């Protein structure tokens, strides 16, 4: 997937003094040091993503400095600044929201430290601020969710009342999954999104917001949740309200982590759009290339599928996360 054009004389792994001690970047041990600023630990997806990154770094012999921003942009910016101060060889991060990164990315660029975006995008106009972006096409994921719904209600004319649990406000997956879904369902006026609110990608918030949705809206036909965790929280709220998830209210989610797939196999979720968290190995390959100064593709897409209950049953025994 990657084109590997070697740029001679471009940035190497070494240069400048090493203030971070023997483990720091630019050490003479030939080992690459990566600073990774993770979003947090908000979901099953994130847990699997963190594990993939840590395991892949160890397997690739890359020295990983890892930080958890607890879903706060200011914490991520602090972590990136500390990686710059430590003169790591490469910085990778999954931006919690899309906006507001130009200043810190410029600081990394000025320090000649290459940056790789993983999982989520930034809206910076200046694409020279990062080397590459590896992750899913979230608009496509939203479209797949919408397409399933259109098929499911084909030939029916009654209004379909939809509630939506959005991911973290301002994050690329929340923006794009909403847009992709909206784009597909707007072709048919019977689909009505009657409520749409953030559940911050967590189970607890998903449950809380779904409780409010249920109280305010007597007729909900469909729940579209931007990730499995919020869907799983919502299932608890639906059951507590005496309704059957998957039957009284149809549920579509995104991710396909094990807990989501288990609920899908049990018929409590009706359809899941896969979003793979296993970005570690590709990230480490890209890191080695950019540290060597090789040119890499600006966008590396993750391959993904979708699951029905039957497909979830078949896939579950081998599911890694
Ligand atoms: O879908 C969600 C997580 O950015 C793709 O973040 C990721 C999303 C994922 O919290 O579960």
Q: Distance N terminus to C terminus?
A: 24 Å
Largest sheet: 6 strands, parallel
Q: What is the residue-mean pLDDT, rounded to a whole number?
A: 92
Q: Enumerate the distinct ligands.
A: beta-D-fucofuranose
Low-confidence stretches at least 5 residues in length (pLDDT < 50)? 1-25
**Counting H and I runs of at least 4 residues, what is the number of helices?**
10
One letter per element, helices H and strands E, the order comes to EEHEHEHEEHEHEHEHEHEHEEEH
What does this 3D model show about the protein?
With 321 residues, the protein is α/β, with parallel strands linked by helices. The longest helix has 17 residues, at 44-60. It contains 10 helices and 14 strands. It has a 6-stranded parallel beta sheet with strand order 3-2-4-5-6-13, with helices on both faces. It has a 6-stranded mixed beta sheet with strand order 8-7-9-10-11-14, with helices on both faces. It has a two-stranded antiparallel sheet with strand order 1-12. The relative contact order is 0.16. Strand 9, helix 7 (228-240) and strand 10 (250-255) form a beta-alpha-beta unit. The model is unreliable at 1-25 (pLDDT under 50). Helix content is 38%, strand content 19%. Belongs to the bacterial solute-binding protein 2 family. Its main location: other. Keywords: Signal. One of its GO terms (molecular function) is carbohydrate binding. It is found in: Cell envelope.
């Amino acid at each position: 997937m990657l084109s590997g054009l070697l740029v001679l004389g471009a940035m190497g792994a070494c240069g400048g003094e090493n203030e971070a001690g023997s483990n720091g970047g630019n050490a003479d041990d030939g080992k690459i040091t990566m600073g990774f600023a993770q979003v947090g630990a908000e979901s099953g997806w994130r847990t699997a993503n963190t594990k993939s990154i840590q395991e892949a770094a160890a397997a690739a012999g890359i020295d990983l400095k890892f930080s958890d921003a607890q879903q706060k942009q200011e914490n991520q910016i602090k972590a990136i600044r500390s990686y710059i101060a430590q003169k790591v060889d490469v910085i990778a991060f999954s931006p919690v929201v899309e906006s507001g990164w130009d200043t810190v990315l410029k600081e990394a660029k000025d320090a000649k430290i290459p940056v790789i975006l993983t999982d989520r995008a930034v809206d910076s106009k200046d694409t020279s601020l990062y080397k590459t972006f590896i992750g899913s096409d979230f608009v496509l994921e939203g479209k797949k969710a919408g397409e399933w719904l259109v098929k499911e209600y084909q030939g029916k004319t009654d209004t379909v009342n939809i509630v939506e649990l959005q991911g973290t406000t301002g994050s690329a997956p929340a923006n794009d999954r909403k847009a992709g879904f909206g784009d597909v369902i707007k072709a048919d006026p019977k689909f009505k999104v009657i409520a749409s609110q953030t559940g911050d990608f967590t189970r607890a918030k998903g449950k809380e917001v779904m409780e409010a949705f249920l109280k305010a809206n007597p007729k909900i036909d469909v729940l579209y949740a931007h990730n499995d965790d919020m869907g799983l929280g919502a299932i608890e709220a639906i059951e507590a309200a005496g309704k059957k998830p998957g039957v009284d209210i149809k549920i579509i989610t995104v991710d396909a982590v094990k807990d989501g797939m288990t609920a899908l196999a049990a018929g409590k979720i009706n359809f899941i759009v896969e979003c793979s968290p296993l970005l570690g190995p590709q990230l480490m390959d890209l890191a080695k290339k950019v540290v060597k100064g090789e040119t890499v593709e600006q966008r590396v897409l993750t391959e993904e599928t979708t699951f029905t209950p039957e497909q979830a049953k078949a896939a579950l025994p081998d599911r890694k996360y």
